DNA sequence: TATGAATGAGCCTTCATTCAT
DNA sequence: TATGAATGAAGGCTCATTCAT
């Protein structure tokens, strides 16, 4: 649902950058095109000319809106990761018990993939590179904060007895995280599976396991 | 038959000169270096010079061993995917029941990650690009064959009643597949988790679910 | 006569619209900013955007005042070189003897550096480029006229016996010229040396030499 | 004379840089071409393509020899400034009295201009830019060391009474320095003036002044 | 007068690849 | 087998300039 959308574009929220016209309409459009291409072909494999071509302008003209290709990537990631973390924090705070919180975290994750498949794909595909890239330290930092939230919920659940105690929380978290976010590679918003349905299926297996009892 | 083909190393299949000892020792070394770099930095991000530097030779000299950068990637992938598929086929054939076969498929997957982390990482990270790249159609083909095996096992399990029937097999397969293969991003052969232990943990959650009953 | 022409500012000479108040105030401001930057960073190294930034407008807006970057350079140079040549002509005409004329030429040179350091620096630094640039032939022409004046004075002085005859006039002229105009690189109007003092020092060495007798 | 030449190329003296083949024959040739162009058109105005064209290769091929355009400039400057400073130090050390040392410094300066007009021009024309450019701090440093030597000689001469005391040493030094090095702009090694002759003329004026007594 | 968007040409640099030695 | 030199195509970016609003 709409709750997944981050609303306003980050350019709006941010101050001036190169050129000083960070909050224009065109900027947003170009960012969308760039994000699409970055997600599809990969960041390094997408040329500035590709983006410009798609936008119907010359490559040099992009630099009227952005000071570098990297800035585009940065803006796309911030626009996605910031709100995502905030939402996770809110879910944990407002949740009633570990069980309900975990489910909500999972449901929101699938909703986020549905709402911003492009940003998620980018995050998934470029994370290795991003960890090496200076200026993108915040990506790993947000990743760590998110991990902390999930781990706390899992631990709390084990303590209260709703989650089984014979599994390693770290491993479980990683299994869950990877299974969820990897769906971006095959999930199609307009395909036969709705994101809520995918979430339900995932929760079903996660809760009770694959085997009959 | 096909089984015999994948047994030999890729270097073997490619003759460079009369005689046929083209699968030289040096070639294997260089391939190892390339694989390592491809997996770490990404295929596109790794330059031929990076590989040559690491090998202590000049970039042009690499072309005495391989006809192109792509050939290296190709060889690495074939060497990994061929045997992997064969093993999966064998597991299915020799298995006694869906439950046991699935467990074995999973166990072998984690073992493969442990044995060839570099190749797995390459396969994981470059699959999107590979799908677009002509000459690498076999990668998707093997992927489909593997998928078929897993899906058959899951369906058989549902039919025989050992796997619950209220979950979509396709979705389940993807969740399982992604969770398993994604571990390559954080699993370290010499780390605190042994691959068998990871497999056991994964099987535990998968069998009975995260929740206590 | 010619004297009248150079009295008016260059802006005056160039009409942009009906009426003729094209030599607007803003134009002069912008020219000052451009001159400052050209002198500091070099003409080629100064971008039109640098100038616009400094003026608080967008680079495209500069073209309402000037038809090109080159026009700015042209105007700055003309405004400086025209009056300079006239003054030198006047000094020669009004002077009484070679000795006094040379001293006056030198004193005025230092005064010009003090008054228009920016234009002098520009002239010094870009002269090589200017000699190649079409449309700037007048710069070399004025240079030649100035040289002629100085050489005549030196020759006359040698003839009259006040300047020693065992030195080549051409070489002497160049030594003198270069020593004088190069001071623009280190002379600071507000520094510890006043321009008259620098002139006196220069004249002292030039007249009697560095050595004691 | 031969003493002015710096002999071996700096590439020889230095360790590996990009590519690791710093001391090749081709490298020296390319450096000469680059120096010539840098001096003639200016560093910024000379494109890498200009250099490559002149060398009869493609611009990209230059990067087999140098890691950047800047590296070429750096090497040219070091090759000139290093030996120059050393020579000045030697002259001061071996000199007998201020008078003789100053004359020798001046004579060697003119010889250096004759031997390496290109490097001198480069140093003269780009010094402002060089002062701003990180990585070229050594240029200003060497300049300061050279200044120190000259100033010491002048001061010593004033103390011993051979140089007049009513002139500011700093100003004198700058007049002398600028007059000498500026000759590079018009001095032509194959022209009518030999560098020794120019030096003699300069010394004549400097010693006794322009005026007859 | 000024803005904002865009052009078009060119710049420095990278990189897979080739080939004579 | 390896070197050293070069190719040719492309990539990210800069910049003077134009023009509709």
UniProtKB/TrEMBL annotation, chains A, B, C, D:
Residues 1-10 have a biased composition (Low complexity). Residues 1-25 are annotated as: Disordered. Residues 47-66 bind DNA. Pfam families: TetR_C_24 (PF17932), TetR_N (PF00440). The keyword Coiled coil does not apply. It comes from the Bacteria. PANTHER family: HTH-TYPE TRANSCRIPTIONAL REGULATOR RUTR, HTH-TYPE TRANSCRIPTIONAL REPRESSOR KSTR2. This is TetR/AcrR family transcriptional regulator.
């Amino acid at each position: 649902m709409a709750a997944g959308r981050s609303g306003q574009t980050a350019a709006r929220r941010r101050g001036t950058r190169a050129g000083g016209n960070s909050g224009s309409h065109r900027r947003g459009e170009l960012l969308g095109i760039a994000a699409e291409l970055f997600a599809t072909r990969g960041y390094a494999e997408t040329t500035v000319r590709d983006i410009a071509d798609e936008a119907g302008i010359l490559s040099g003209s992009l630099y009227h809106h952005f000071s570098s290709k990297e800035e585009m990537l940065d803006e796309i990631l911030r626009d996605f990761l910031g709100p995502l973390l905030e939402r996770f924090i809110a879910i944990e705070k407002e949740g009633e018990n570990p069980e309900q919180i975990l489910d909500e975290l999972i449901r929101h994750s699938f909703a986020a993939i549905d709402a911003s498949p492009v940003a998620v794909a980018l995050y998934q595909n470029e994370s290795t590179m991003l960890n090496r890239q200076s200026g993108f330290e915040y990506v790993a930092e947000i990743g760590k904060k998110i991990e902390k939230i999930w781990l706390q919920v899992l631990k709390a659940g084990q303590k209260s007895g709703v989650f089984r105690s014979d599994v390693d929380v770290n491993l479980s978290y990683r299994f869950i995280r990877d299974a969820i976010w990897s769906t971006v590679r095959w999930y199609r918003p307009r395909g036969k599976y709705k994101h809520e349905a995918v979430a339900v299926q995932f929760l079903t297996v996660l809760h009770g396991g694959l085997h009959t009892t």
